[in-house]
Every structure is written in structure tokens, then in C-alpha cells.
Specification:
This protein is an alpha/beta fold. The protein has a single domain, classed as P-loop containing nucleotide triphosphate hydrolases (Rossmann fold, 3-Layer(aba) Sandwich), CATH 3.40.50.300. It is built from five helices and seven strands; from the N terminus they run ββαββαβαβαβα. It has a seven-stranded mixed beta sheet with strand order 1-3-4-2-5-6-7, sandwiched between helices. InterPro entries: G_ENGB_dom (IPR030393), GTP-bd (IPR006073), GTP-bd_ribosome_bio_YsxC (IPR019987), P-loop_NTPase (IPR027417). Keywords: Cell cycle, Cell division, GTP-binding, Magnesium, Metal-binding, Nucleotide-binding, Septation.
Length: about 200
């Protein structure tokens, strides 16, 4: 798969975001879920998205352009307790405004740590996406951090928890930024969906 991805721009206000003239794929999850690391792993660029050992470092809406065809967007992580309540609420408000004002949104990639139980903040955000009819998939991260059987069991538990709220779940992917697990499946899904949207716009 040949493509070029480059940093486009960062914004602190939704109104500053670029014109909605191409498909957009947003990556979001709790702070320290491995969001920036996954973006770097997917696109084979170690320093494309800034990775910090300190959670909560992504504080803006960061745009990356792929082949002039679509955008990949790295959003602030949610739920980092060491930021002030005012700051967390501000980011939450900005993020939700972003989702509700991007008509070109192709898919939201919701990242969930595959090693721990479903967190209340993850569940609340997923329910919010569903209630607003926003398309999303689940990306389970850090699959290399525990034994395969433990990862599998925890993911099943998470899915069962989510099925208490919904009749069915969207597509799911299990990934490891360290080992590259799931990379090709996520990229195939992303590029195929982008192509479908671009083809539909041309009709």
C-alpha cells in the first residue's frame, strides 16, 4: 500500500479546522491509551504524532493529510486526572463540538486499553457517539502487554459490558503499536472506507 502522510496543522478551536472537503478519521481515547503511538505505528512514521511518557500531552486537534485524499485527526485524550477539572471540561466540550460540526466525519476510532476492564468514561463516550449516530469502531490497544488468553478474556468482558447498552457492536480491531498487530487490518478498513466516501461524492 503506497501513500504519503504528512502533518497538516493543529487547532485549538473547532472553528479553525479546515474545510470539510474530504473524509476525516478521528482517533480518540483515554489519556495514555496509546493513541499517538498507534497513529505512528499505522503509518510507519515514528515521530509523526508526538508521543510523551506523560499522559494528556495532546492538547489540540492535530490534523494529518494522507495523499490529499483524507485527514487523520489526533484528538486530546480524555480523563487525565492531573489536569484541572476546568481543563478537562474544556477539552470535553471542544471534542464534542468537533464531532458535531464535521459533516465529513468518516469514522471515529475509539481506543480502549485491552489490558484493563472497561472504564466508565470509555462507556460514557461510546454511548454518546451512539446516541448522536456517529460512526465508530473499537480499537483495543497494547495487546502485547499481557498474555494472549488474558487479552482475549478481557476484550470479551468489555464487549459483554457494552452489549448491556447496545444490541450490537461496531467493528473491532486488536492492536499492538510495539509488534504491529492489527496494523494492516485497520489500514485496510480506513482506506476502503475513504475510497467509498470519495466515490460516493463523485456520483
Amino acid at each position: 500500500m503506497n501513500y504519503q502522510i504528512n502533518y497538516h496543522a493543529s487547532y485549538h478551536k473547532v472553528e479553525q479546522c479546515p474545510e470539510a472537503d474530504r473524509p476525516e478519521f478521528a482517533f480518540i481515547g483515554r489519556s495514555n491509551v496509546g493513541k499517538s503511538s498507534l497513529i505512528n505505528s499505522l503509518f510507519g512514521r515514528k515521530e509523526l504524532a508526538y508521543v510523551s511518557k506523560q499522559p494528556g500531552k495532546t492538547q489540540s486537534i492535530n490534523y494529518y493529510k494522507v495523499d490529499e485524499r483524507f485527514y487523520v485527526v489526533d484528538l486530546p485524550g480524555f480523563g487525565y486526572a492531573k489536569h484541572s477539572k476546568k481543563q478537562r471540561l474544556s477539552w470535553d466540550k471542544m471534542t464534542k463540538r468537533y464531532f458535531l460540526n464535521r459533516p465529513n466525519m468518516a469514522c471515529v476510532f475509539v481506543l480502549i486499553d485491552a489490558n484493563i476492564p472497561l472504564q466508565a468514561i470509555d462507556r460514557a463516550f461510546i454511548n454518546w457517539l451512539g446516541e448522536h449516530h456517529l460512526p465508530y469502531v473499537l480499537i483495543f490497544t497494547k495487546s502485547d502487554k499481557s498474555k494472549p488468553r488474558e487479552i482475549k478474556k478481557n476484550i470479551e468482558n468489555i464487549k459483554n459490558e457494552l452489549l448491556k447498552d447496545w444490541e450490537y457492536l461496531p467493528p473491532q480491531f486488536v492492536t499492538s503499536s510495539v509488534k504491529g498487530e492489527g496494523k494492516d487490518l485497520v489500514l485496510d478498513y480506513l482506506f476502503n472506507l475513504a475510497d467509498e466516501m470519495i466515490d460516493d461524492e463523485r456520483k
